Amino acid sequence: MAASEHTVLQFGTSSSTLTAKIHPLVIFNICDCYVRRPDQAERVIGTLLGSILPDGTVDIRNSYAVPHSESADQVALDIEYHHNMLVSHQKVNPKEVIVGWYSTGLGVTGGSALIHEFYSREVPNPIHLTVDTGFNNGEGTIKAYVSANLSLGDRQLAAQFQEVPLDLRMVEAERVGFDILKTTMVDKLPNDLEGMEASMERLLALIDDVYKYVDNVVEGHVAPDNSIGRFISETVSSLPKLSPPAFDKLVNDSLQDNLLLLYLSSITRTQLSLAEKLNTAAQIL
Amino acid sequence: MANTNTAPMAMARSFLQVAATEEVASPLRVVQIEGLVILKIIKHCKEFSPALVTGQLLGLDVGSVLELTNCFPFPIREEDEENEAEGANYQLDMMKCLREVNVDNNTVGWYQSTLLGSFQTVELIETFMNYQENIRRCVCIIYDPSRSNQGVLALKALKLSDSFMELYRSNNFTGEKLREKNLSWVDIFEEIPIKVSNSALISAFMTELEADTPVTQCDYDRLQLSSNPFLERNMEFLIECMDDLSMEQQKFQFYYRSLSRQQSQQQAWLQKRRAENAARKAAGEEPLPEEDPANPIFKPVPEPSRLDSFLITNQMANYCNQINGVAGQNFSRLHLMKALHEN
């Protein structure tokens, strides 16, 4: 809790600069909690953990669900649970502090204001993330909001939820591979060489695409696009300029290094299995 | 008619039989991991890399499949009595909390990060034995953040083989026992194939969120040309292991030498005794016993445990595999680069 004091959200009049970045784990977690929600519950809500990056972006890195009960005009949040879980999470990673809360469903609902008020007491200016697990408008909408108070003089009138841009690019998920995360069942993890093969195939396909495009432009089938041309020339010029003998030498040297390593490791392996055979033979004697 | 009547009966019986046989223990064939667990493990391991971290795996044990549906990280442990109790409390708290949101609250093992695959240690075996005492079937997931930087999902599910566990319990790693069990270094760890499953909801979201660019971060990582630091570290570790192994072998040589010295001493003593006995017999006296337990040369020389050398051998085999894998990747990369350059 002490750590949260110095993560002041830079917010006030300049709400337009605030952005949020979400890690795929958070979405996975929310979906999992939604799948496991209690029978009578309509939605799940929970706490978002993360940090504020130096440029003011809210980095949402972790989350946990908080049990709650909801009736027509009331929301009861299990605050004790929330605090227990927070303490546990901070034992592991003290750098992650509360940055806001999430709820499933499309957009902001009436009860949200109450919960938002609670989280505003935990951390200044929390983020409210909504994940539409019901696919209400045909797509999984994920949105982030911050709330601004509308007040007249000293009197609070209402809380207004403003949408903030959300960065959904998932470098971490890409690292693991969408092939694995996208389907419901994968029988086998790709090993070194299979992954390599897939990547190379993709690269080849891309190069083919570029070839086709360039050929089409040259022959006049497609209208030339300067920006694409610039990208292509940049890509080509990013190859280091080396004389063919120098390049050959470089490649061959690396090849030989690798071959040597391969040889060494193979010889070690042979040695190991030989030693094992000898060992058992010696024991039998 | 008779057939249709007996079929359900037979089914019921066979179901019972199946249940009964499963009670005995069906071997663990597949570990089925949720994408959520993979991401959680990766996040935890990566954030603390290069420090090594561990965490608990929660899930269900269904027949020959072990489903991992959730996990939680352990705080970094400091060697302290007080902290140990605190760690246990933390575990209990976490389990309690997770149960409240309907997470499978059933420990099925643990995960840990590793550096270049150097995980085959006595500690791992000890932890495994500890877990095994409480849970009939448990598994250890190993994740290697250093390898993942090259675009490989370096996840491994391991368990100790049954015959090894039996041997470890009796703590008897002499050559004779190992021969009896026909156990070699390859048989210590069993790697279990990993399946990945995701809920339909997550699958839908991921399809929605997948960037439409044809190139992913994973491809960039894989096509990265510089793997030399990785290979160098690997070689260093391999060489260290070799040193360790040669130390172990020296121990064994020493043992065999002292054993053979002892045997020759015993032989000499026995001959002397026999000659003496023959003389006594000729003189009509009672022969002396042919064994003398009090004599120090009959004290058995303790045989060094082979566990360490087995583990080191395993480790070396692992490094060799890694080097082979990365070198193989390098070949493809280099040839690719050559082809590109020629174009």
UniProtKB/TrEMBL annotation, chain A:
The keyword Hydrolase does not apply. InterPro entries: eIF3f (IPR027531), EIF3F/CSN6-like_C (IPR024969), JAMM/MPN+_dom (IPR000555), MPN (IPR037518). Residues 20-151 form the MPN domain. One of its GO terms (cellular component) is eukaryotic translation initiation factor 3 complex, eIF3m. It comes from Castanea mollissima. It comes from the Eukaryota. Transmembrane segments: none annotated. HAMAP family: eIF3f (MF_03005). Component of the eukaryotic translation initiation factor 3 (eIF-3) complex. SMART domains: JAB_MPN (SM00232). The keyword Protein biosynthesis applies. Pfam families: JAB, MitMem_reg. GO terms for biological process: formation of cytoplasmic translation initiation complex. This is Eukaryotic translation initiation factor 3 subunit F. Component of the eukaryotic translation initiation factor 3 (eIF-3) complex, which is involved in protein synthesis of a specialized repertoire of mRNAs and, together with other initiation factors, stimulates binding of mRNA and methionyl-tRNAi to the 40S ribosome. The eIF-3 complex specifically targets and initiates translation of a subset of mRNAs involved in cell proliferation. CDD domains: MPN_eIF3f (cd08064). Gene3D superfamilies: Cytidine Deaminase, domain 2. Belongs to the eIF-3 subunit F family. Keywords: Cytoplasm, Initiation factor, Protein biosynthesis.
